[in-house]
Amino acid sequence: MKILAKKNKQPLAYVSKIIVKSKAKDTLAGHLEMMGIETVKPSPNFDDGFPDELINELQKAFDNRQIIGNKSISGTVILAELGQKAIDENKIIVYTSPDSTLQICGHEEKLGLENLYRYAKAARKICSSRPEWNVARVIARPYIGENGNFKRTFNRHDYANIPPKSILDSLQKNGIETIGIGKIADIFSNQGLDKIFGPNTDENNMDIAIDIASQESENQFIFVNLVEFDSSYGHRRDVMGYCQNLNNFDIKLAKLANALKDDDLLIISSDHGNDPCFPGTNHTREALPLTIFSKKFKSKTKELKNPISSLATIGNLIAKNFGIEMAEIGEDIFDFLD
């Protein structure tokens, strides 16, 4: 596939590529690095499924329901394979992915969200009890529908370990209102956030951001995660769906840019790659896009360093914008922007 585009002679923003420095390529590592925390030692993966001892502990915590699945597999594939069996036999689906995750599937109406969340919290505690089990995220994966037409819902929740103090905490400590939209609260275990808007569609999450940006405010940081690029199109290797979602985002982006005040700063990037054209179904390690926009910028003809060496540079830019201390990693590009 070839994408042809003309270079804009009068760009409206600074653009570059940015590198993930962390020893992982997943949601948690990417977001933490953005806020100045580098993942030096990745959490364990379970490509061959979880050990029997861990499965036994989980089953006890799951009201003695038998666990089925226990392998590394696509979430939509395992739903098609075991979704009905879990309902018919009152069992629970547990699986993993090429990332460090333990994912628990339950039907919203048959198992119930309350039970699913309770099981996920218990699983997080069990996994955190031993370093060899300590996955980066335990994910509650609810689904709805009938056999042959099961669909995952936006009522998922991620349970991560409480992260180290980051730039997000520093912003909050220094009186900057912090707002998390999408998976942000789950990723940071609700830490460092004043207001939370949970997982939703990319379109709805952008609408929330536009609405907040349109209001009069000072000293406010809005952190938005658009999960459908990853979950619905990247992992599914759905090129046309990804393209359409990008077009929809572009429309919303114009509205967001128009809503910004003159001194607002907009930064667009990614926590990891997930190339829909690449073989497989997992995240891809690659240089990520970086776009930086503000109405107060006078000259965008200067070119940023390319590539930039760490996602922590984003956090440093945010920190310096608000006049707080930067992270120990990442670059400082604040004074370059004018």
TrEMBL record:
Pfam families: Metalloenzyme
EC annotation from Swiss-Prot or TrEMBL: 5.4.2.7
GO molecular function: magnesium ion binding; phosphopentomutase activity
Protein name as it appears in the record: Phosphopentomutase
Metal-binding keyword on record: yes
Single GO cellular component term: cytosol
Metalloenzyme domain location: 100-325
Organism, scientific name: Mesomycoplasma hyopneumoniae (strain 168)
Gene name of the record: deoB
Gene3D superfamilies named among the record's database cross-references: Alkaline Phosphatase, subunit A, Phosphopentomutase
Top-level taxon in the UniProt lineage: Bacteria
GO biological process: metabolic compound salvage; nucleotide metabolic process
Keyword line: Manganese, Metal-binding
InterPro entries from the UniProt entry: Alkaline_phosphatase_core_sf (IPR017850), DeoB (IPR010045), Metalloenzyme (IPR006124), Phosphopentomutase_DeoB_cap_sf (IPR024052)
